[in-house]
C-alpha cells in the first residue's frame, strides 16, 4: 500500500446527502449539520464560503471544488456579508433561523433545492453524514476548509455528477455514492500532490527509506506479532535506530502507531462486516476478544459492540430535498 492509497483508503459513502442548490441573490445559508465532510462545487455563478472563526472567506467559482471538514459551522452565500436566511441542521433538516421549515417552499425537484428555479448560482453538494464513512486519519490530515481550483482530473467527474444528481432511477443512490467517493479521491489526490503540500507526519514519513518501509509493513500486516526488534530486523537497522527515527518522523513510537492502525482497521471491520468480535480481534493481531475489547475501549471510548451498534446506517430518502 503506497502512502496515498493508505490515506485515501476509507471514503465509502453510504446514502450520502447529495443536492443541487439553485439560488438567486441575495442568498445565504448557515450550515450546522455537523457532518464530517462536505464537498461543494459551482456549475454556474459564484459563491462565498465563510468559515467559523477568523478564517478568511473563500470564493468558489465554476469548476472549483471546496471541501469543508466538520463539525464546525460555516456559511455559504452570494457575498461574505449577506446575512443567513436559512439554516441546514443535522441530517439535512432545513429551516429559517427561527426554526420554521423550508422544505416545501424551496423544493425545486429531485435532489434540487433553492429560492429560484432559474437562479444564477448553481452548486453541487455532496455530504458524508457519518464519521465512519471517512477514516479519522484522513480527516485529521485535512484543514477545516480547502479549495482546489478547477482541475482536469476532477472536471469529468463533476460533469457526470451534475448529469446524475437529479435523476431518479433504480439504484441511483448507489451510483451517486460511488461518484462522490471518486470525486473526493480525485480532489484529495490533487491536493496532496500540489507543490508545497503538507500531509500528515506519517504520510511524509512514507518517503523515508527506512521508516517508510516500516510503515508499509505495519499497514499491510497488522495481524503480525510485531515488536520493535522484529520491525528493525525487517528494515535492516538497529532497534534503537528505528525507534528513534520512527518517532522523530511519525510523531509516535512504532508500537503506538501499530495500535492505532489496528484499531482503525478493526473499526472498519466492525462497521462493514458481520464478523464476530473474536474474528475481528484475530484479524488485526489480538489474541482474543478480551484483549481486543480492552484496547478498543481505551482507544475509542466504547466497546466494539457499542461501536458497531452506534454505526448502524439510518434510512435516508435520496430523492428528497432538505427536510
Fold and architecture overview:
The chain is of the alpha+beta class. Helix 3 runs antiparallel to helix 4, helix 6 runs parallel beside helix 9 (254-272) and helix 10 packs across helix 11. The chain has twelve helices and 13 strands. The chain has a seven-stranded mixed beta sheet, covered by helices on one side. It has helices at residues 3-8, 136-141, 155-164, 172-193, 201-205, 211-220, 228-235, 239-250, 254-272, 277-283, 289-300, 304-310, and strands at residues 17-23, 28-31, 37-44, 47-51, 58-60, 65-69, 74-77, 86-88, 94-95, 107-109, 112-114, 121-128, 145-148. The model is unreliable at 313-323 (pLDDT under 50). 38% of the residues lie in helices and 18% in strands. The chain starts with a helix and ends in a 13-residue tail after the last helix.
Mean pLDDT: 88
> Approximately how much beta-strand content do the residues carry?
15-25%
- Which structural class should the secondary elements be placed in? alpha+beta
Poorly predicted residue ranges? 313-323
How far from one another are the termini? 41 Å
Relative helix content: 25-40%
Major sheet summary line: 7 strands, mixed
Count of beta strands = 13
Spatial sequence of strands, sheet with the most strands: 10-11-1-12-3-6-13
Order of helices and strands: HEEEEEEEEEEEEHEHHHHHHHHHH
Shape: elongated
Summed up, the helix count is 12
Radius of gyration: 22 Å
List keywords for this structure.
323 residues, single chain, alpha+beta, 13 strands, disordered C terminus, 38% helix, six-stranded mixed β-sheet
Amino acid at each position: 500500500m503506497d502512502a496515498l492509497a493508505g490515506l485515501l483508503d476509507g471514503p465509502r459513502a453510504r446514502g450520502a446527502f447529495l443536492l443541487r442548490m439553485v439560488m438567486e441573490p441575495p442568498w445565504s445559508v448557515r450550515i450546522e449539520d455537523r457532518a464530517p465532510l462536505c464537498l461543494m462545487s459551482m456549475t454556474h455563478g459564484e459563491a462565498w464560503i465563510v468559515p467559523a472563526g477568523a478564517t478568511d472567506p473563500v470564493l468558489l467559482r465554476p469548476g472549483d471544488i471546496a471541501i469543508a471538514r466538520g463539525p464546525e459551522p460555516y456559511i455559504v452565500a452570494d457575498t461574505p456579508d449577506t446575512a443567513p436566511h436559512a439554516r441546514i441542521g443535522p441530517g439535512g433538516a432545513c429551516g429559517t433561523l427561527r426554526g420554521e421549515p423550508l422544505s416545501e417552499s424551496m423544493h425545486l425537484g429531485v435532489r434540487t433545492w433553492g429560492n429560484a428555479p432559474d437562479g444564477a448560482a448553481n452548486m453541487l453538494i455532496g455530504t458524508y453524514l457519518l464519521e465512519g464513512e471517512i477514516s479519522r486519519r484522513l480527516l485529521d490530515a485535512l484543514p477545516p476548509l480547502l479549495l482546489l481550483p478547477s482541475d482536469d482530473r476532477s472536471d469529468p467527474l463533476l460533469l457526470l455528477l451534475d448529469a446524475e444528481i437529479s435523476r431518479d432511477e433504480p439504484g441511483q443512490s448507489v451510483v451517486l455514492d460511488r461518484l462522490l467517493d471518486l470525486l473526493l479521491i480525485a480532489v484529495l489526490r490533487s491536493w496532496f500532490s500540489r507543490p508545497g503540500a503538507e500531509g500528515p507526519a506519517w504520510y511524509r514519513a512514507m518517503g523515508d527509506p527506512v521508516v517508510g518501509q516500516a510503515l508499509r509493513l505495519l499497514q499491510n500486516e497488522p495481524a503480525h506479532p510485531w515488536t520493535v526488534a522484529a520491525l528493525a530486523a525487517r528494515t535492516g537497522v538497529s532497534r534503537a535506530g528505528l525507534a528513534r527515527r520512527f518517532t522523530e518522523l511519525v510523531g509516535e513510537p512504532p508500537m503506538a502507531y501499530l495500535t492505532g492502525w489496528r484499531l482503525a482497521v478493526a473499526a472498519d471491520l466492525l462497521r462493514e462486516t458481520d464478523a464476530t468480535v473474536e474474528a475481528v480481534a484475530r484479524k488485526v493481531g489480538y489474541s482474543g476478544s478480551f484483549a481486543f475489547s480492552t484496547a478498543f475501549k481505551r482507544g475509542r471510548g466504547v466497546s466494539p459492540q457499542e461501536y458497531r451498534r452506534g454505526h448502524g446506517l439510518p434510512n435516508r430518502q435520496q430523492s428528497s430535498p432538505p427536510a
